[in-house]
Inverse folding.
């Protein structure tokens, strides 16, 4: 779970110079709604490229769309409830003949619950996180080969761009459904990442964000995340990365944040709890003191840098003493901001049974 996870849908981005919502009468239209983290935002950008290539114009409102695509999040229950609300509204619009087809993609599509949702809300197409390529055939493009790494480029030309460097997660945190819906970690080759960054920069991108569920776990052919970050920082005017895991965060990466002008002086490093006992229950793989030491390295390397974290409150088994230890860590680390979440049980995780 990370600060990048949000349940608020992201506004669509027009496909062309034509204002969104003003498609010609003979043009097929599509509306994309994105729920969740930057990974989903990037996936929606790839979906946007698919529908653009298929001749669709993107519109802002469901009522103006022939096809509605919901790209979803499954990390917390409230995100699922929000999607159900949108599906209910789409059902009403379909009964009125104002929406023709509905597709559900993303993490909900990879969960067992998707079968029930498909039947309940009459969804035309349900896709998970590893078969989004099947949307191509659905919108009338030649069938694409499956790819677990994001070789399909997103739209280009914007000042900011997301570049996914890995998918999935090999950790088994007690509360997290990501390994179930995203699968095990698969890393993209360094050359592929650097080539995409160079292409984006050539097209006018000035700020690149490297994405991954545990982005600092990236490794390929003997190279580690530090090596990739160094290579990208030599090409991109500005580069940031999210979300990191403390167990993977190397001191040399923390020092690079302070030493390299092109790397944004900002670190998001989810701690989840300041209690060693709870960190063991959560299967986080580190102790609070180790986390504190990493923050000391970051503060020394980038004195003016900003620091943020994630914290879960109310995980099964957490005591008042555990909570007090978390508050003490927050005080010691002096975070600039923190994303604090009430524990949300997800079916299929260990914590849901505790």
């Amino acid at each position: 779970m990370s600060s990048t996870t949000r349940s608020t849908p992201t506004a669509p981005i027009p496909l062309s110079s034509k204002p969104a919502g003003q498609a010609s009468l003979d043009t097929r239209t599509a509306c994309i709604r994105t729920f969740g983290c930057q990974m989903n935002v990037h996936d929606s950008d790839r979906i946007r490229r698919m529908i653009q290539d298929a001749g669709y114009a993107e519109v802002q409102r469901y009522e103006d769309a022939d096809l509605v695509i919901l790209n979803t999040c499954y990390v917390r229950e409230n995100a699922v409830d929000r999607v159900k609300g949108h599906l209910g509204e789409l059902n009403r619009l379909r009964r009125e003949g104002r929406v023709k087809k509905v597709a559900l993609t993303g993490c909900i599509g990879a969960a067992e619950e998707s079968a029930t949702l498909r039947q309940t809300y009459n969804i035309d197409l349900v896709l998970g996180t590893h078969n989004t390529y099947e949307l191509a055939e659905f919108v009338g493009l030649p069938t694409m080969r499956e790819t677990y790494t994001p070789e399909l480029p997103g739209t280009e030309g914007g000042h900011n761009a997301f570049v996914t460097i890995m998918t999935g997660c090999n950790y088994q945190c007690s509360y997290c459904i990501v390994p179930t819906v995203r699968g095990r970690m698969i890393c993209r080759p360094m050359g592929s990442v650097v080539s995409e960054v160079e292409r984006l920069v050539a097209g006018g991108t000035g700020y690149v964000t490297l994405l991954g569920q545990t982005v600092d776990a990236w490794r390929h052919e003997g190279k580690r995340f530090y090596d990739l970050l160094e290579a990208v920082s030599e090409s991109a005017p500005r580069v940031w990365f999210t979300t990191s895991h403390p167990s993977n965060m190397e001191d040399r990466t923390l020092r690079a944040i302070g030493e390299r002008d092109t790397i944004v002086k900002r670190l998001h490093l989810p701690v989840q709890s300041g209690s060693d006992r709870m960190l063991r229950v959560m299967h986080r793989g580190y102790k609070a003191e180790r986390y504190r030491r990493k923050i000391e390295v970051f503060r020394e390397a980038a004195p003016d840098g900003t620091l943020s974290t994630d914290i879960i409150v109310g995980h099964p088994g957490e005591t008042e003493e555990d909570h007090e230890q978390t508050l003490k860590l927050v005080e010691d680390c002096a975070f600039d901001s923190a994303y604090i979440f009430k524990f949300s049980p997800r079916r299929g995780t260990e914590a849901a049974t505790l």
